[in-house]
Design goal:
This protein is mostly helical and 499 residues long. Helices cover 67% and strands 0% of the residues.
Length: 499
């Protein structure tokens, strides 16, 4: 039995002894769609993009065509034929080693993503209760640490079913409703005869061209859509994954575009670009909108709703990459047994705990070393670069699987798969290369030194660390059907698995 067959839904009891039909806790395709939207889209960048007015639509729609659409369609085909998510697709399409590197890149990105997301939660909460707290490193660190460990508790005790429910309710209450309210009030504002703060003529659809800066702006928005593939690791929790996962992805595409495109345009109707505070973000915009209609009392309520949505997105990220790393580590023997421990619900307890200790350490650095912020930003860029490597593997694996296993059962076949993969790979490469261009705040430094530092850091995090896991890999660490299938065949050296 192949490894993909072993993980397939409805497999034989020998292939999946711990997941009988009665034991599986299913989630709906709509819940998975909401989890995907919650992990990708939020109102956090709305105020920043509102400074571009009507051009915000172009800045999101173009990356959606060349990156979001290929990623979503290719992921839909892969998930409908190969369960397990990124690690399974890349393992079966390229090699187990490549599968480890891919899922590690997805997991590594979260190390610096969590503090960034949770610091946004802290600043939004401060805006609701006491804006002065946003400048306090102690307050920010406390929120990051407390919220992360509460998230770990939910993931360990509640499992994917609870996370799916929280993600669904959080997205509705904290993103869809506030975004819808913002757009509706904006339409009423214009219908009352008020003048839009930003010009809305056809000539303003395209942003002004400023050379390389404009190119960086457009390509950097590719990153707004990363994470569309992340929840494919939960495909086995769907009753009919072959049809339900593609359906969920298509719904997620529509919701992501609506959430990212419409609110910034609505904000630009109320607040002039030169008055938008990029630090106060969406809360300042909501404050201005509600003040116009005499609804100031809604501001703190919306702030709490946005916090709920951010926490729901955090939980979906917490459960996805860590589970993928656990699955390949257990199946192929890349992780020691210590890191393979799980709760009854299947959550990787020790992986989450170790990651939590790292997150706690980063949060404490912000308290005692305020100057660490620029270095933290650089490491965020490095982990983002590592994450982009995941998409290289996904698009290559999809093309190879279509060629190597053309008759493999797929619930969905992406149209013009070759073109989608080429466009998606090229978009990922463009975003990767742009990552070596120093931002404006580093303009005084050497662009070459910056690029070399990012390159070396990406090589270490994205190559050296998973390389060590590959080199140290032991067949005795394997668990599950793969271990049983390979046990009779001795493997004298880990290097035999290379490639």
């Amino acid at each position: 039995m192949s490894s993909s067959d072993a993980a397939a839904p409805g497999g034989t009891p020998a292939a999946a002894p711990s997941r009988t039909a009665a034991a599986v806790k299913y989630i709906s395709w709509s819940a998975l769609a909401f989890m995907t939207v919650g992990s990708v889209a939020s109102l956090r960048p709305a105020a920043t993009m509102a400074t571009y007015g009507l051009a915000a639509a172009f800045l999101y729609i173009l990356p959606a065509i060349v990156f979001l659409l290929p990623t979503a369609l290719v992921s839909a085909e892969l998930a409908s034929g190969w369960s397990g998510g990124v690690y399974r697709w890349v393992t079966d399409g390229i090699s187990p080693n490549a599968g480890l590197i891919a899922i590690w890149g997805q997991f590594a990105m979260t190390i610096f993503y969590y503090p960034t997301l949770l610091s946004y939660v802290a600043s939004t909460l401060a805006y609701v209760f006491n804006p002065d707290l946003a400048a306090s490193g102690v307050y920010t660190a406390a929120v990051i640490v407390v919220v992360y460990w509460l998230g770990v508790f939910v993931a360990l005790r509640g499992g994917i079913g609870m996370i799916a429910r929280l993600a669904q309710s959080g997205l509705i209450a904290g993103t869809l409703l506030p975004a819808g309210l913002l757009v509706v009030l904006g339409v009423i504002f214009l219908a009352q005869g008020n003048q839009s703060a930003a010009p809305m003529g056809v000539s303003y659809i395209l942003p002004p061209w400023a050379g390389i800066a404009s190119l960086v702006l457009i390509v950097s928005n590719f990153m707004a859509y990363t994470g569309m593939e992340m929840n494919a690791v939960h495909v086995n929790e769907l009753r009919k994954p072959e049809t339900e996962f593609p359906r969920g992805m298509f719904v997620a595409i529509g919701l992501v575009l609506l959430i990212l495109v419409l609110p910034p345009i609505a904000i630009s109707w109320f607040v002039p670009a030169d008055q938008l505070s990029l630090t106060a973000g969406a809360m300042q915009a909501f404050d201005a909108v509600f003040a116009h209609f005499g609804l100031d009392w809604l501001t703190p309520i919306i702030g709490l709703c946005i916090v709920v949505a951010s926490l729901a997105g955090f939980l979906t990220w917490l459960s996805g990459p860590s589970k993928g790393l656990l699955l390949i580590g257990r199946e192929k023997g890349f992780l020691p047994p210590f890191f393979q421990r799980t709760t009854e619900s299947g959550a990787p307890v020790n992986i989450l705990v170790i990651q939590g200790l790292v997150t706690t350490g980063i949060a404490l650095l912000f308290v005692f070393l305020p100057s660490v912020s620029s270095g933290y930003w650089i490491f965020s860029v490095i982990t983002t670069q590592t994450y982009l490597l995941v998409y290289f593997f996904i698009f290559v694996a999809a093309m190879l699987l279509r060629r190597k296993a053309p008759d493999h059962k797929r619930g969905y076949r992406a149209p013009i798969l070759g073109i989608l993969c080429v466009v998606g790979f090229a978009s990922s490469l463009a975003a990767f290369l742009i990552g070596f261009v120093p931002p404006s705040q580093f303009g005084g430094g050497s662009p070459t030194a910056y690029a070399v530092f990012i390159l070396v850091g990406t090589a270490i995090i994205g190559g050296v660390i998973p390389g060590l896991l590959i080199w140290l890999r032991k067949p005795s660490w394997q668990q599950g059907p793969a271990a049983a299938a390979e046990a009779p065949e001795p493997r004298p050296a880990p290097r035999e698995l290379a490639g």
